[in-house]
Amino acid sequence: xxxxxxxxxxxxxxxxxxxxxxxxxxxxxxxxxxxxxxxxxxxxxxxxxxxxxxxxxxxxxxxxxxxxxxxxxxxxxxxxxxxxxxxxxxxxxxxxxxxxxxxxxxxxxxxxxxxx
Amino acid sequence: xxxxxxxxxxxxxxxxxxxxxxxxxxxxxxxxxxxxxxxxxxxxxxxxxxxxxxxxxxxxxxxxxxxxxxxxxxxxxxxxxxxxxxxxxxxxxxxxxxxxxxxxxxxxxxxxxxxx
Lengths: 116, 116
Hints:
Order of helices and strands of chain A: EEEEEEEEEE
CATH class of chain A: Mainly Beta
Oligomer: homodimer
CATH architecture of chain A: Sandwich
């Protein structure tokens, strides 16, 4: 059992899928107790983007701050504070804050990966 | 893939462990896409409490609003907005907002249960 402010977790730049201006923290990962799923924090800065990409792991997301376009097979999706986003396995997805004026921050829960 | 405001999910009172003044929503459950873990939203109102209880499912929690005492084997724990709480399997835990003046709200991710 522990309680920790999310800002105490190390923040590192996101580089996959040609992401730009995105920072990530592992809040609860394998080394901090997670058994089968991990909780991460993403901060997509104004002007930032995680381009469309695809993988087998599903995402369970809760938006903490801001607003961004959700890239997917569905046109016109937008996610904002207090929204829940579910990305099924193998569904193309991404988040575009290139026209935003503040950070788009969210919690993303993902099945545990070997490289985590 | 979907995007939904958390308030669109049905809210029901929490009754386990003699909880008082606590409301819960299944944000992402088995019927809405979850495969191995589910995301719920809890709102412990001022004067509310989830008393100390124990179960095998671990919790991965992110606090959205407010502050509450965290009941556990550890004395004096408090969780507040932007805190991450990890509750391991079989660890006694609870949340006490009986002296609070505003809601203590958090996201809680849990392995999927048959009854969900």
